[in-house]
Design brief:
The chain is built from one helix and 33 strands. With about 450 residues, the protein is mainly beta.
């Protein structure tokens, strides 16, 4: 064999080996992400609205009305949950029609107030809004509107609605903000953030709306970083900032009784006066692809922020005039899973959402050091309820753990709580009025979580 032939074979061998190694390393990511926008095969047709008179609206003892719950603290008010799952949990109902069309995946979480559950969906060219009976899953009303969107990771809404008394606000990935009657779904008003100079980020608008006083606020991006509308009419009250829109929900913070809006935008975190929108400060926080998607945590005069792609986390001490960095590290790095601050410690999923190999960690907030770390719960999302963290990983396995700063304590687990899934389960679990709601694309499942 000639020398050049040996060199050619050697180069080809190295190339093949490199490809093989890359496939081994990246195949788990590829296999999960390739299914993000597609639906499962068991999609059902949307049923007719129940032919009955709508019941007067009620409120429950443990409603979940927004991305961050009824109290705006991401904590469920449900008490007395079932802790032994060895015999499974009782499934009360399931629907499989929220998305229609191969690339219409929707990640928006449901919201519940009394006898109304609102959840978003998508068909080929329209955003859909469904209202279900939260007890039996029957369809109470359905509305839709035309919306041109990208199909990247699914064309459906990502932002979670906000129920405010007798109204519900939805925000689509194309920037459509709608106000609907919670009773029967009648449209009250609509607006698109692009009318004020807003611009969608790379993967579409995902920042959930925030209702505060007489305002409803969203991240608009472009020349309308944060926008405040009159919640009754949709009339513009103020807009502030010229930042790339982030994917995280807006958060309220108070300084000496005065409300401030925190926007975790594409390039950092900013604070605006809730009354007039004036920017108080803006702290840079650069991430890959401008993805800031994890909701900032506010406690005392501090703010904890974190982002994925190995960016890490940061703890800020703030006031109306500015923010000082207390510490920053890469020990904890969450792409879009909200952690919790409990008694001076932070608990949550660290890592990216493309593989089920992330770590659930406990961090000492005093200095940012790691208390412990486990991979026993994959990578996922969680909600604090009744003193426990109820978590679901991206394969649809359910876990219950007890927060403990000194060790990982797994109490129960329920494999395949969503049945067979194709692609990652990204929507966080929701608990309201003794029920647990799990969403995966077109599917919504309700379990009994409090024994009667």
């Amino acid at each position: 064999m000639k020398k050049w032939q040996k060199w050619s074979l050697g180069i080809v061998g190295i190339f093949v080996a490199a490809i093989s190694i890359a496939v081994v390393i990246f195949w788990p990511t590829i296999s999960i992400l390739k299914g993000t926008g597609k639906l499962n095969d068991d999609t059902e047709a949307i049923p007719s609205v129940a032919s009955r008179d709508l019941k007067p609206m009620e409120k429950g003892n443990a409603d979940w009305i927004s991305w961050y719950g009824a109290n705006g603290d991401n904590r469920s008010k449900v008490k007395g949950i079932i802790k032994d799952w060895s015999g499974g949990l009782k499934k009360l109902w399931e629907v499989n029609y929220l998305c229609q069309g191969n690339l219409s995946a929707t990640w928006s979480a449901p919201v519940i107030q009394g006898n109304r559950l609102v959840v978003c969906g998508r068909d080929t060219d329209k955003d859909l809004v469904f209202c279900l009976d939260p007890v039996d899953g029957s369809l109470l009303w359905k509305v839709s509107y035309m919306a041109k969107t990208s199909t990247s990771h699914g064309s459906g809404p990502r932002a979670t609605p906000y129920i405010d008394d007798d109204r519900v606000y939805t925000f689509g990935r194309s920037g459509d903000l709608y106000c609907w009657s919670l009773f029967d779904g009648k449209q009250i008003w609509k607006i698109n953030v692009s009318d004020e100079g807003g611009k969608a980020p790379q993967w579409g608008h995902a920042s959930s709306p925030l209702v505060l006083g007489n305002l409803v606020l969203v991240q608009g991006g472009g020349s309308a970083g944060t926008i405040a509308y009159e919640k009754a009419t949709g009339k513009l009250t103020w807009k502030s900032g010229h930042d790339i829109a982030g994917y995280a929900a807006l958060v309220e913070m108070n300084f000496a009784g005065e409300s401030v809006i925190l926007a975790f935008h594409g390039k950092g975190i900013s604070a605006q006066d809730a009354g007039n929108g004036s920017e108080l400060w803006n702290v840079p926080w650069e991430t890959s692809y401008d993805v800031n998607a994890t909701t900032p945590i506010v406690f005392d005069d501090k703010i904890f922020i974190t982002s994925g792609y190995g960016t890490g986390c940061e703890l800020l001490r703030t006031n109306r005039s500015g923010a000082d960095i207390l510490w920053r590290n890469e020990i904890f790095s969450s792409i879009h899973s909200d952690p919790y601050v409990i008694d001076g410690f932070l608990y949550g999923y660290s890592g990216d959402s493309s593989q089920n190999k992330g770590k659930f960690k406990c961090i000492n907030l005093q200095d940012g050091t790691e208390q412990w770390s486990t991979n026993d719960m994959g990578w996922g999302t969680c909600v604090l309820v009744d003193g426990y963290l109820l978590c679901i990983d991206i394969k649809g396995n359910l876990f219950l753990m007890k927060p403990d700063p000194y060790k990982f304590v797994k109490v129960s687990e329920l494999p395949k709580a969503l049945g067979n899934v194709s692609g990652p389960v990204w929507t966080k679990p929701v608990l309201a009025n003794d029920h647990l709601y799990l969403r995966f694309k077109q599917r919504l499942v309700c379990y009994e979580i409090v024994k009667h």
